[in-house]
Write a structure and sequence with these properties.
Layout lengths: L6 H33 L2 H24 L1 H8 L3 E2 L6 H14 L5 E5 L6 E4 L7 E5 H6 L2 H16 L2 H25 L10 H44 L2 H13 L37 H9 L2
Helix pairs in contact: 1-7, 1-8, 2-7, 4-6, 6-8, 6-9, 7-8, 9-10
Length: about 300
């Protein structure tokens, strides 16, 4: 008999792994700074670090405070109607009570695909958007499972966490880009064999570091999905609800071109990546659906 999984253990484990992965990005940024300091004047090194931090923060903070508006506008979502979407309102209100969170604003987007997403910088500014396909194809328990998953993202401050991750990845990418461009204007002595080897190592690291940071960011995103699944079970106390919803998502037939309704920049917010539903890899924002179902069935 398969051992049961505690949803609380899953939550704690995934949060710890997310923090560890974020720490890995910070380490990459520090190493990149060390590499830059070896090739450039110390004062120039600090300028690069400051510029990368400022630009990354400005871009991400603007997106952070407008995340819900950007996401809703990009999918042409409309406010849900209590009369027309009674089961949806009941599910959201039930999960708000179960989680102890304020009821988020509710939106519906036109799509035959089963999907949903949550956005907003904190529980007081949260929104939940559900596709028309989800409302048509899911029963009450399945819909509550999906809503619980999205409420879990709100409860776990995942938008804030992923925003911080984006800042760190942005800092690494900008610093690496400035460093690589600055080499064209550097007056360092490159004639000695030792300097040439160091320069090659520095260039390789500056190229690899942003890619590695992005891969770590995607790994964090996958961990947050597992955490949201487990937290959703904590709210519903009924793992089959979300598990059955994911099974329907896995097996549903999506018309050709349906995923084009989703901007790729917003796709990571959804409960299931509309562009990579059945397979996953290092470049996926979501873990494999089969693995998510397996874990839910063991809770």
């Amino acid at each position: 008999m398969t051992d049961r999984i505690s949803f609380q253990d899953q939550i704690n484990s995934n949060k710890a792994k997310s923090v560890f992965l974020m720490f890995a990005i910070i380490v990459a940024f520090i190493i990149l700074g060390f590499v830059i300091s070896k090739f450039l004047d110390p004062s120039y090194f600090f300028i690069i670090m400051i510029i990368s931090i400022i630009f990354s923060l400005l871009y991400t903070v603007i997106s952070y405070y407008n995340a819900d508006k950007i996401a809703l506008a990009s999918v042409r979502a409309k406010p849900a109607s209590r009369e027309e979407h009674k089961m949806l309102f009941n599910s959201v209100e039930n999960m708000a009570l179960a989680s102890g969170l304020p009821a988020p604003r509710i939106y519906v987007m036109d799509s035959s695909e089963i999907n949903a997403f949550a956005s907003g910088r904190d529980p007081k500014h949260a929104v939940i958007c559900v596709t028309t396909g989800a409302l048509e194809k899911l029963n009450k328990q399945e819909l509550e499972g999906i809503i619980a998953h999205e409420m879990a993202h709100v409860a776990n401050y995942d938008i804030r966490f992923m925003t911080l991750t984006a800042v760190l990845v942005g800092m690494v990418s900008i610093a690496a880009e400035i460093f690589l461009r600055s080499l064209w204007f550097s007056n360092n002595d490159r004639n000695s064999r030792g300097n040439a080897i160091l320069m090659i190592i520095g260039i390789l690291f500056a190229i690899i570091a942003p890619i590695a940071a992005q891969l770590v960011s995607l790994a964090i995103s996958r961990r947050r999905e597992y955490t949201a699944d487990a937290t959703g079970v904590k709210f519903t106390r009924y793992p089959p609800g979300l598990a059955n919803a994911l099974k329907k998502i896995k097996h549903e037939h999506v018309p050709a071109g349906e995923s084009r309704k989703y901007p790729k920049a917003v796709a990571p917010l959804f409960i299931s990546d509309p562009f990579k539903k059945k397979l996953t890899n290092l470049f996926s924002t979501h873990p494999p659906v089969d693995e998510r179902i397996r874990r839910l069935e063991q809770m």
